[in-house]
User: What shape does this take?
Amino acid sequence: MTSLALLAREQSPVLMNRPASPISNALGTPASTTTTTKQRSTVRQETQTPKIDSRPVQRGLPGLGEDTAIVRRRRPLPPKSHREAEALVTLYDKRIAARWTGRTRRQYRWVLRNMLGLAGNLAGRSVGILELLRDEQLLGRLLATATTADRSREVSAWLVAQRRSVLRSFTELMEPELRREGIADAGDALVRALRSVAEPVGTGYRLPVGATRGRGGPAPSLEEIAAIQDELAGKPDWRGSRNKIIFSLMTRRGLRIGGLLTLDGASAHRLRDGRIRCLLRAKSKREPYELAAPDDLTEPLARYVEQFNTWAKASGLPDRIGFGVLGRFWRNDLGQPLTYQAWTSELKQACISVGVPVYTSHAFRRAFATISTAVVPRATVATAGNWTSTRRMDDHYVQPSLTRLRQSVARLPSRPGQALPVETDSPVLDAVGTGP
Amino acid sequence: MTQRALDLFGSFSLSPETKALIGRFKEARLESGKAASTIAAEVSQLRSLAKDAKTHLGMALADLFDRPDSAAELIELAGRSSGHSTVLTRSRALQRLAMLQLGDGEGRGWITAFQSSLPKRKGSGWHDSGLSLPGSRERIRPRSPTPDPDALEAILRLAVSRSPLDGTIAGLACFSGLELDEICELRWSDVTWRDDSASTFCEVTVHRRGRRTTCLIVPMGARPLLSLALTSGLQRDNYVLPGRKEGEHLSKGAIRNRIKCMCESAGWPGLTLSQLTAAFVVWLRKHGYDDHSVKLVLACRRVATVDRLLRSHECIASQIRVDSAMEGQAL
Assistant: This one.
């Protein structure tokens, strides 16, 4: 490399971060004196060194001559096997799209890409799906590695299980194509790879990798709920009504925020007697969840619709909302659909303003379970909150406060025949609150 | 005009060979005693498949028997625009056509080749081929809100005021566990009147999934039926709901439209017959019937069906119960 080129390389940040060989190739200097020509050609075949476009498109440093020209580099073409693997992944994506929901498709696509990234990281080279399925050892290592693709942090056991599911689904859905590629028993290979890294337990195997899923969490107390609701409802015009209704539905019905925010006006019905019923998307269920809006929310709901439509008309927006009207029911400050991020930030602001811990929207589902189970039979609460059974609700959602329970237990009668004090007529409800 | 435009306007016509092939298939299926609706669905799917084969691959339906992998491609393609059950019918119809066209031995060989070209899933037993067929599993039609039991009485009242025929349809739809095709094909000879001391009700004999069973029509629904019986001349072999043509019954579509219209007028738009039956179960429970008695009234095989019918109503009722229990709390 000439001294001028070296100077240019030192001074130009663009050139400094580039590998030496393409630049030196472009400058017409030998790449390395230690490798022979044959070795170089082998390396090129394996790694597919990018072809260099020799047309100078930009001067590196003005006045320093042609030697310092920065050339445009084309993206290197992947090897043929990788292109085939990529075509398979694209076809798999289409097959998933033809079978499952868009959500599943996006999830599976991400997991597959992430997994291939991790496989490449483990192998120290770029790995395609075909290569991965052929190499049982690498497959086993991949499934037993519970880290992100760049191996910077541990991932959850759920994601590890998801990787297994995606690979199983890939081997099943792409079975004809894999057979054509000479991988006839991809499913069996996957099982063998899993067994090679799993620990034998009894007559089966176990693969305990990844961070176990955290369930439960704090549930806000009645006082905190009231304070947050007041804060949220304090927003001007229709935003206050919207916040109050969403928050009320979350706390009084234990709704999941995802289902509530995606409510479409066409699924919101106003019956002849004025009652309101909404059909919401239910998690992991095909049938929607039918929400019967509390009677005292009927009027605020109507007011919200009216206020929003008046505001939209005044703002010159074409969108209108309403019962039976197609389009998202909950809107943001710009009249667009209210997103999860926008709602979460609103809730966070409210929590900070009233000086309570920052709760997630799901915490109010826990609050609903905790508060309602104190006064209503558990089976009724589970049905109302759309839990499949009481078990999940009891184990992960109901969070009675031990501190408050101690206080209420202290007020229980100590002698036979002693009457309860007047203020403790609902000792169980008193036990509701945050933390142990 | 382009092929796409022709398709849009429905001008696509099948070749005479394909028509003859589908015709033979139809005859063979009729001979084997399959239900008309099943045959109609299969023929429709074969026609669509023939259209797809012509449009996408430029080949006739019969040519697919030389290329099972192309047939699998077409099935995969169908999943992009059709539902899962539609694709399932299409795949089944094609396999049956192959058995008919190629004969037993060669047909089985073709089916094996066809199935090996399709994506797989874990089979659930020896009877399951373990195929993963495409098509949306999502419910396309949005559901309407669950009706109250009082809504049934409102619908019936409205229907009776319109005409005796509408009253009868509403009575059968709202106050019996009859299915739509059973309502269509009901004859006066199937109806047995029970004149109890309090009120008149009737029993209907139906053939449901290979068994003969008796379904009860409670007095509320039997009353308009009796009115219609008295005005219709009581000819035992006649249909209860006669169509326009002599000796034919009212079509399913006509009955469905009338039910839809009546429900809309009563303030419950978009209700299905299944939702009306579910509301009838709640109505019976409200009048003191236990689940096993409800099962007998509806002529269900299992009480689990009653549970399933009650599920959406239970959800609403639980929400109301929670509301009333939490009244006065800070929430």
